[in-house]
Amino acid sequence: MDIFNAINVFVHVADKGSQSAAADSLHCSKPQVSRVLCELEQHLQVKLIHRTTRQQALTDAGARFLQRCRLLLEDLESAQLEAVRSRQEVAGTLRMHAPNGIGKHYIIPLIAEFRHQHPDLSIDLTLNPTPPDMLAGGYDVVILDSCEIPDSAFICQTLGRSYSVICGAPEYLARRSVPHTLSDLYAHTCLELDDAAFPHGWEIAGLDAAKFELGQQAFKTNLADGVAEAAKAGLGLALLPGHAAAAGIRSGELIRVLPDVQAHHRGITALYPSRRFLSANVRKWIEYLKVQIPARQQKDNEILSRFTRSDLSRPALHKVPVYNW
Description:
Layout: H1 3-16, H2 19-26, H3 30-44, E1 49-51, E2 56-58, H4 60-88, E3 92-98, H5 100-117, E4 121-127, H6 134-137, E5 141-146, E6 155-168, H7 170-176, E7 190-193, H8 209-213, E8 217-221, H9 224-232, E9 237-241, H10 242-251, E10 255-257, E11 263-272, H11 280-306, H12 309-312
Parallel strand pairs: 3-4, 3-5, 7-8, 7-9
Antiparallel strand pairs: 1-2, 5-11, 6-9, 6-10, 6-11
GO biological process, one term: DNA-templated transcription
Keywords: DNA-binding, Transcription, Transcription regulation
Family: Belongs to the LysR transcriptional regulatory family.
């Protein structure tokens, strides 16, 4: 027996005052209504309505059952409305995961802007370089920065692509000289990002990574921002993701060298469980990221491409320039 349908029929019979009126309201036949009521009473082992050919009356048990049934149907209607609203309105909580660097430089600033548009939404963001188990962690969206689109049963949406550039502090370059070819790098100190996507360190076409690493490493960490800070402090040259390098280059704390070199290409990707019946929270957020992340990456790329070898040959390289763009 469909208990919710039986409860709905019972409430209609009680409200309309007869089985015939309830049948008209439910667009079914009187025998169907009578059969459902009998099945409900048999299921409960309780008499709910005294019925004659001319009138009906609720039993005491039926009256008490009716009160509970009304509350149940109201809760069910509210639950259905809430579920429908979740597909139409941005509200509630959006649980999301992102890598540290992408999260800091792109996701968090975009969250602030997105919430201005949707103030009823709360964001629960986890930052970690290791991708989580989406379902076990209860995440609505997982942001990845990877070399390849993952083989996954989830929906995968590419948001942008990034690359890494070689940077150094003005003081370091003034002290150690500016590299103009890849072979010049062998004479420099290497700062390394511990990145699972590029386990061999500085993977650059034309550069012998094994030779480069011999006796050259001065600093290694698993956060791109940490490598950037070490480079700003003059510890050596860093191969930095564009988002981690752009701010330092813009402020003059870092200078890009070998501007023709683009390495460690990777994509920025959003994963979410299903395209079907997608909630408004996820749908609107993904649509927002598809527009905003490429726009922010374009600004970063403009900063990265602004510096050329002619910038590096100017006098007083050791002075830190400040650019107000």
